[in-house]
Amino acid sequence: xxxxxxxxxxxxxxxxxxxxxxxxxxxxxxxxxxxxxxxxxxxxxxxxxxxxxxxxxxxxxxxxxxxxxxxxxxxxxxxxxxxxxxxxxxxxxxxxxxxxxxxxxxxxxxxxxxxxxxxxxxxxxxxxxxxxxxxxxxxxxxxxxxxxxxxxxxxxxxxxxxxxxxxxxxxxxxxxxxxxxxxxxxxxxxxxxxxxxxxxxxxxxxxxxxxxxxxxxxxxxxxxxxxxxxxxxxxxxxxxxxxxxxxxxxxxxxxxxxxxxxxxxxxxxxxxxxxxxxxxxxxxxxxxxxxxxxxxxxxxxxxxxxxxxxxxxxxxxxxxxxxxxxxxxxxxxxxxxxxxxxxxxxxxxxxxxxxxxxxxxxxxxxxxxxxxxxxxxxxxxxxxxxxxxxxxxxxxxxxxxxxxxxxxxxxxxxxxxxxxxxxxxxxxxxxxxxxxxxxxxxxxxxxxxxxxxxxxxxxxxxxxxxxxxxxxxxxxxxxxxxxxxxxxxxx
Length: 491
Ligand SMILES: *Cc1c(COP(=O)(O)O)cnc(C)c1O
Known about the structure:
This protein is of the alpha/beta class. Helix content is 37%, strand content 11%.
């Protein structure tokens, strides 16, 4: 446990200390006044902390100890798939042939890396049922945007540039309407029915000659599998639109169902979710997309191709939408995903889905007595409960989330999706043991009992964390984003 009054690096500072030694200068010294405009030259020395190397290491290790990550405890953050990232992925990603190469190197000298990219594409084609994959997008949301730009290019190439509407259900992930808007489309919302699924009649009523695409998050943000996909696909295709599958949470269906077999024209995957790339702190992601044969000419370039056992980048794609990311995607994350796929094998990936779904249903059924369950059918990899019962007792969902931290549990996603009041969106993932799931269930039940008998305990939580209850309004209106001594002291 980190200490309450953990000294920050400025407080450790002592004049004259230094943590490094530079070798003697063996090149001519630069005269700053000659090289730089006066406006850019510092007049007063920067106030930097002066510490030795050990103090510096303690500072950063101390900070990391105050952080909560998947290696600290259970992290059931709905829709984010905070699952364990196997160490073997790191070993492979650090192999010099992968980590010490340069993007401008002659492709003859990086055949292994290119083969890995090519083989990963082939695996992802098999997993999704799509015809071609690009590994370029650096996030799920960027994959969405890339696919929409491909749809747009396709419609334009067919003389249908008037198609400017993208239909997005109200149960979609928040990035879907955002990507559609950024890609220049008008977002048309379609409602969910009482079962939490897309209302197909409502869909029929919004489809028209301007429909460019339907974006479907499946399972949707309620963790429910959309049961009428084939019908939706028919409606959209008949109207000349394209079907987009948000496959960020593929661990719900992997090995059992494929977007390509359901009539989708494009799909994105989150390699930093389902395929164990680490993604805490918004780190590098990878959001490849897969498309059908007819859309392949529009893929971002370059594409990795194989010819006579040699691999190379193909830039000869006259209809390509262009590059969407510097170089070739986040290669390091792709190496980790490839390693994961190879260590799991086809049967292993199927098991991933089985356990992800089983774990989510186990927790959901264990909590349905104490918490309101707005949709009662079985869920897929995640589910949504409502804190409405507790709200009536004076305890908000935010309080429940804060209280969970006292049990060494990262709070789940809260107040999302918007279609459920006081929502808690819980995703256990397949990598957690039954003991961990039980600890979570017992903690949630204890919190529900506290809300009923002594709500103040929950309202004032957390008690066990380094930083206690924050002033949420001040934190968002007046965030302190850099070191300020007096504020750090009182926090
Ligand atoms: C995480 C997620 C996204 C966005 O992925 P990023 O890599 O965070 O951009 C999109 N859709 C769903 C369903 C997700 O869970």
